[in-house]
Amino acid sequence: MNPEIAALKERAESYKILYKTNQVSRDEALSNIQPYIDKVNAKATELAKKFNVRPKLVTVTGFLR
Q1: How many Cα atoms occupy the beta-carbon half-sphere of 48 within 13 Å?
Q2: Taking every pair of C-alpha atoms in the chain, what is the biggest distance, in angstroms?
Q3: For the whole model, what pTM was predicted?
Q4: In the predicted model, is pLDDT for residue 1 greater than 90?
Q5: Dihedral (Cα; 36, 38, 1, 55), 10-degree rounding
Q6: How far apart are CA 60 and CA 62, in angstroms?
Q7: Of the four listed, 11, 12, 13, 43, which is most buried by Cβ atoms within 10 Å?
Q8: CB 39 within 8 A of CB 8
Q9: How many CB atoms are located within 10 Å of the residue 62 CB?
Q10: How far apart are the C-alpha atoms of 35 and 11, rounded to whole Å?
Q11: pLDDT digits (tens, 9 = 90+) for 4-32
Q12: Secondary structure percentages of the chain, helix, strand, coil, to 5
């Protein structure tokens, strides 16, 4: 995992915890989690094309569960 994605994941995980403990609003959590979700989905699409399968995309709702 490259450092950029690792930093995005760390930030997304921290905002996930903050959102679950009601310390930040949903909009604030979504705006900080969405960049990580976008990178993960781009990588999933890239790998799916390489192996000719459907990508397993991540949603924000699924990430927050």
Answers
A1: 11
A2: 42
A3: 0.90
A4: no
A5: 130
A6: 5
A7: 12
A8: yes
A9: 9
A10: 10
A11: 999 999 999 999 999 999 999 999 999 99
A12: 75, 0, 25
25-51 residue pLDDT tens: 999 999 999 999 999 999 999 999 999
Q: What is the dihedral of CA 26, 23, 33, 13, to 10 degrees?
A: -140
**How far is it, in rounded angstroms, from Cα 57 to Cα 15?**
20
C-alpha count within 13 angstroms, C-beta hemisphere, residue 20: 10
**Which whole-number Å values give the CA distances from 42 to 16, 21, 25, 27, 65, in the listed order?**
21, 29, 26, 22, 21
How far is 6 from 41, CA to CA, in rounded Å? 15
